Amino acid sequence: MSNHYVVLARRWRPRSFDTLIGQDHVTRALTHALDHDRLSHAFLFSGIRGTGKTTLARLLALCLNCEQGTSSKPCGRCGSCTEIIAGNHPDVLEVDAASRTKVDQMRELLDMVAYAPTHSRFRIFILDEVHMLSVPSFNALLKTLEEPPNHVKFLFATTELRKLPATILSRCQRYELKRVPESMLVSHMSHILEQESITFEKNALELVARAAEGSVRDALSLLDQVISHGNGTVAHATVGQLLGLTHGETTRMLLNHVLTGEGKTLLETLSILHQSGVEPESVVRDLLDQLHLEVRTRVTRGTRTDVGDAPTPMPRSISLEHLQMVYMVLNKGGHELRLTAHPWHAMEMLMLRACFLAPVPDLDRLIRMLEKNPAQGGGNSGHRSDPATSSHTASTPNAISSSPSPMAPIDRRSSVSSMEPSDAGVTITRKTDRFPDDWDHLIAYARGKQPALAMKLNTQLACLRYQPPTGQQAGCIELQLINDCFGTPDAICDSVAGLIRQCFHEEINVSVKTSSDVNRPATLLEKKRSEQEASLNQLEKELQNHPGLQSLRTRFDAEILSVMPVESRNIH
């Protein structure tokens, strides 16, 4: 009697398309191709590890070379099927491409293509991890792969589809295998354990499925380890100890400490987890899962579909914006834990960073506060027009609300009111902002209304003439472009006139000269730079003659290379 133990992943390897889980889209296509004799000469299976790429290639080889005939349901008992399952069929050559990357080895393999199969229908080449082949090996394979003999089939498997040349991809039928859902993994492991007569807890299998990340082989390999660790049983506590996982209640308590800013209690809980042998990356991963579940629950209003979900009592006062910020901090910091020499130190600093994040304010509440207190918005940008009293007097739009006296002309630069008709037929009086006295104030006003236009006016236009409107005559603004980067003169003209018409209800004669004109005045930006340069030059002269610096220069043979201003900042 042999004592050789075969692991679950090998013992429960699928022997038919029906027993392969999670890849129905691939098995359905292959079944139809086999039943209707529409088989390609080259197949390519791609996907993450442990999802069934090599298994599919072997199953396809079984279907092609079964002695009962080519079909989607091989017998599995004939000599050909038995040899393929055992891995010693003379016409089915399975090659690890990672160990045969050289072009000479590929040529030796391709020399076998010309020979007919010994006692089977097809000569089948299975190349696993085909992306490991060298570029010369791929080039040597191209012509044969495009037009192989009728008795040859190529079956490729890879976990790195992007590393394959496009010339190889275009010659194959591609099938991309998906991650197996956790619920399907749990059902599959439950079936295996029942057949193996092993007692288990379903929540333990849920932990194993989550750790497998969609890989059937990883799940079964980990299950083998859990069975050994638990002395023939699969228990939730055993899996948690083996994987270094935190208990669900501990994770929720830890997350509450982070969200409520309880730094001292947070460190005490982390110290207990450290003594229990929990891995730092596992703690971060569990916290991210809890945050994801909480945000998803709030957005979907309580609908949950994940395996093993449990209620997560978090303070409802914590906004979604703050939860998203904590998630981003933990997610980014979690990737850096494996790079440090002291993971737990980095873990504590990461958790404290998330713990002392400033809570994100409620944006809706801030907007309502600004609407109630427009003066706090800053400058003209926060100014809101207030409705005035209604008038039953018929009036045209943009008319002045009061008639000017012939002896006292109105200064149109002062704050006035315009009359606008409403839907009810009455005229609403709206307050109009005071017209700016000069070009600098007009640009300052435009920064609050149209920032993009204000940038153009500040950097690309020089003011030749600025005349505000008065009671006797209309206003006039003459500008000159310094280059054509920000549009044509007509476009600039329309933008400035439109701003003035919208905000001040004035018709201003605006003209813009092209950049080809010379002898222009400086723009506001150029004036500001000139003033700063003059100020720095004056400051440098004063420093050169400063007695304290004179002694330092003499003592250390020093030289003043440049002078830079210190920006004043408001500290709150």
How many H/I helical runs?
Answer: 22
CATH homologous superfamily placement of the largest domain: P-loop containing nucleotide triphosphate hydrolases
Range of strand content: 5-15%
The main pleated sheet reads as: 5 strands, parallel
Share of residues in helices:
40-55%
Set out the fold topology.
Blueprint: H1 8-11, H2 24-35, E1 42-46, H3 53-65, H4 79-86, E2 92-96, H5 103-111, E3 123-128, H6 135-146, E4 152-158, H7 166-169, E5 173-176, H8 182-195, H9 202-212, H10 216-229, H11 236-243, H12 248-260, H13 263-275, H14 280-299, H15 320-336, H16 343-355, H17 363-372, E6 387-391, E7 399-400, E8 417-421, E9 427-431, H18 439-449, H19 451-460, E10 461-467, E11 476-481, H20 489-504, E12 509-513, H21 524-544, H22 547-556
Parallel strand pairs: 1-4, 1-5, 2-3, 3-4, 11-12
Antiparallel strand pairs: 6-9, 7-8, 8-9, 10-11
Notes on the structure:
It contains 22 helices and twelve strands. The chain has 572 residues and is α/β, with parallel strands linked by helices. It folds into five domains: 8-176, P-loop containing nucleotide triphosphate hydrolases (Rossmann fold, 3-Layer(aba) Sandwich), CATH 3.40.50.300; 182-243, Helicase, Ruva Protein, domain 3 (Orthogonal Bundle), CATH 1.10.8; 248-304 and 314-355, Zinc Finger, Delta Prime, domain 3; 439-521, GMP Synthetase, Chain A, domain 3; 526-556. The strands form three sheets. Strands 2-3-4-1-5 form a five-stranded parallel β-sheet, covered by helices on one side. Strand 11 (476-481), helix 20 (489-504) and strand 12 form a beta-alpha-beta unit. The longest helix is centred in the C-terminal third of the chain and has 21 residues, at 524-544. It starts with 7 loop residues before the first helix and ends in a 16-residue tail after the last helix. The relative contact order is 0.05.
